[in-house]
Structures are given as C-alpha cells and as structure tokens.
Design brief:
CATH architecture: 2-Layer Sandwich
InterPro entries: BolA, BolA-like_sf
GO biological process, one term: iron-sulfur cluster assembly
Oligomer: single chain
Distance between the termini: 28 Å
Order of helices and strands: HEHEHHEH
Organism: Candidatus Accumulibacter affinis
Shape: globular
Protein name: BolA family transcriptional regulator
Structural class: alpha+beta
Family: Belongs to the BolA/IbaG family.
CATH topology: GMP Synthetase, Chain A, domain 3
Largest sheet: 3 strands, mixed
CATH class: Alpha Beta
Length: about 100
C-alpha cells in the first residue's frame, strides 16, 4: 500500500468515526491517527489503524467509564473489528471537560 493510499484510508476512517459518533451529539470530538507510531505492529500489518479519541458529550452524564466505552463501541460497531485495531478513549461530560486542565490528546 502506498503512503498516499494509507493516508487517504486513514482520513476515510477518521471521517467514518466522526459520522458514527455524531449520534452522541459531541460538543468536542478529536480523532487522532497514531498508526504511524505503530508501524510493523501485527495489527497495523492487517490494515487496522491505531487511533486516539477525545469526545465530550452530555450523553455521558451519569454514566461510568465502562458504560461510556460501551456507548462508543456500539456506535462504532464493525469498525472495531475491521478498520480499527486499537482505540484509546477519553470520554468526558461537559462538566468534566471544563474541570480538566490536562486533556489528552
């Protein structure tokens, strides 16, 4: 796969992630492709990308960390079995985002 094709495929996955997570009505959504940092990793060889996700949504209010992750996994569906090999998640409520001074990524 050429570098140009890989960049295009990663951008496509990022767009699909954003579209699927729109159901959570995010106030902030950042999708960062970390795939290049994992070049040579077995998951990368299979075509699955490595991503970091920061999402701020009122939908997370009253939900624990595990429930938030399940909501994200449900929204992303088959991408987690096909196009995403690894996903780092930071899922915050609006209040948590305001109170957090060090938001990664």
């Amino acid at each position: 796969m050429s570098d140009t094709h890989a960049v295009g495929a990663a951008a496509e996955v990022q767009t699909i992630i954003q579209q699927r997570l729109a159901v959570l009505e995010p106030l902030r959504l950042q999708v960062i492709d970390d795939s290049a940092r994992h070049a040579g990793h077995p998951g990368a060889k299979g075509g699955g990308g490595h991503y970091r996700l920061l999402i701020v949504s009122a939908a997370f209010t009253g939900q624990g960390r595990l429930a938030r992750h399940r909501m994200l996994h449900d929204a992303l569906g088959d991408l987690l079995r096909t196009r995403i090999h690894a996903l780092g998640i930071q899922a915050l409520t609006p209040a948590e985002a305001l109170a957090t001074t060090a938001i990664a990524p």
